[in-house]
Design goal:
metal-binding; Naphthalene 1,2-dioxygenase Alpha Subunit, Chain A, domain 1; 2 domains; Aromatic ring-hydroxylating dioxygenase subunit alpha; 9 helices; four-stranded antiparallel sheet; seven-stranded antiparallel sheet; Rieske Iron-sulfur Protein; dioxygenase activity; Rieske_2Fe-2S; iron; alpha+beta; single chain; 17 strands
Length: about 425
């Protein structure tokens, strides 16, 4: 048998047994990583920001994605736009990664100057024959869904983004996420491949044993269970919860709140997403240690606290939106074994720290969960590189979406000729 180091990308994918994990080389090889970046982070829709990152006209958020760099900005008409962070003269970066506020975008090299609509407004000493209209910034396909800012760097962005917009538009509407501000943001580097980060996020098999803070707000019955292994007592508790759950969902429906699970998870669908309104345990209000709201000023014009957790995950992101705040995370791969996990906590624009909320209480659950997940990803990445590693089977009860992720990964590579 040829060693994994000499197999082609296609051979490594084909070696996966249905229902089992992927070959360890798919998490470590540089050539695989470069292909992943080109296909999944250039040709697909990915999240790169939240609307509050560019809150006012002239705000710029620069994001590096592999060799590419993108300027996310809000123009004078309050529209969010995206451009390649490349001067049309000799290619200099216009802005370093991070946030800034500008009147116009000025290249630091030769001071070519661009308006917020991307048009070139000033380029000295270029001669009378020079046409600035041909040197506007290169636009990037950009969509805003709730607070999510998504881009596609490819020339032909997948059209099924319209399905995400159609489903999540009305679900996010009551929270008025455009009218939020960032209460806290956290960048965390996980020492593992991006696929392992996403696999970890798509199952909660590990939650009870590793996330004591998060599990407080989760109903164990919603995390995937094996009914055939339940004791009579556990089954009675499960059945009782299903009755209570139906009552809560009926109440939400009577209030015009969407709660049904929607899955856009066909293996060949470029834009993957899954959403549901999850019941919060305990007081039923928010993902805090006491399950009560962390921010007394609710999002939008909401007056009701017990709205559950509108949960969404997509190609490279996941979000939890509750009556009082939203927690939105996304990833950007840095290398085969390093992944940036970027998280923002959003509150009502008018919420005041120390008055309406305590920052530690608002963030402590997901700060702890992020650190715990990082440790899990690191030990898994390390283990997949051990010569003794042989992929094991997924749990059909608690890991079906990990298996689906592997199928999607395979399908999308094939669609791009890999």
């Amino acid at each position: 048998m040829r060693p994994s180091s000499s197999k082609t990308h296609r051979e490594l994918i084909a070696s996966r047994q249905p229902g089992f994990g992927m070959n360890g080389a798919l998490y470590s090889r540089q050539d695989v990583f470069e292909t992943d970046m080109e296909i999944f982070f250039n040709q697909h829709w990915i999240q790169v920001a939240v609307t509050a990152d560019v809150d006012e006209p002239g705000d710029v958020f620069t994001v590096d994605i592999g060799k590419s760099s993108v300027l996310i900005l809000r123009d004078d008409d309050e529209q969010i736009r995206a451009y390649r962070n490349v001067c049309r003269h000799r290619g200099a970066r216009l802005k370093e990664a991070g946030k800034s506020t500008v009147g116009m975008l000025v290249c630091p090299y030769h001071q070519w100057t661009y308006d917020l609509d991307g048009s070139l407004k000033h380029a000295s000493h270029m001669g009378k024959g020079f046409d600035p209209k041909c040197r506007s910034l290169i636009p990037v396909h950009c969509k805003v869904v709730g607070a999510h800012v998504l881009v596609c760097l490819g020339d032909n962005p997948p059209e099924d983004i319209k399905d995400l917009e159609a489903v999540m538009g009305p679900r996010f509407a009551p929270f008025d996420l455009a009218n939020t501000r960032i209460a806290y943001e956290l960048d965390y580097i996980e020492n593992g491949n991006w696929k392992l980060v996403m696999e970890n996020n798509r199952e909660c098999y590990h939650c009870a044993g590793t996330h004591p803070e998060l599990i407080v707000s989760y109903q164990s019955e919603d995390l995937g269970v094996s009914l055939e292994e339940m004791s009579d007592e556990a089954r009675a508790s499960y059945d009782a919860y299903q009755i209570r759950k139906a009552g809560i969902e009926a109440d939400w429906a009577n209030s015009g709140l969407l709660y049904e699970t929607v899955e856009h998870l066909q293996d060949d669908a470029p834009t993957q997403f899954r959403t549901q309104r999850m019941i919060i345990a305990g007081a039923g209000e928010s993902q805090t240690l006491d399950t009560q709201v962390a921010c007394r000023k609710l999002l939008g014009n909401l007056t009701r606290r017990d709205l559950g957790d509108t949960h969404l995950w997509g190609n490279n992101a996941w979000a939890h939106v509750m009556s009082d705040h939203a927690m939105i995370s996304w990833i950007i791969p840095l290398s085969p074994d390093r992944t940036l996990v970027r998280t923002k906590w959003l509150v009502h624009r008018d919420a005041v720290e120390g008055v309406d909320y305590d920052l530690q209480r608002l963030t402590e659950v997901w700060v702890a969960t992020t650190q715990q997940d990082a440790a899990l990803v690191a030990i898994t990445h390390s283990g997949t590189q051990d010569p003794a590693f042989v992929p094991g089977p997924y749990s059909t009860y608690t890991e079906p979406y990990v298996d689906q992720f592997a199928r999607w990964y395979t399908s999308r590579l094939a669609a791009h000729g890999v």
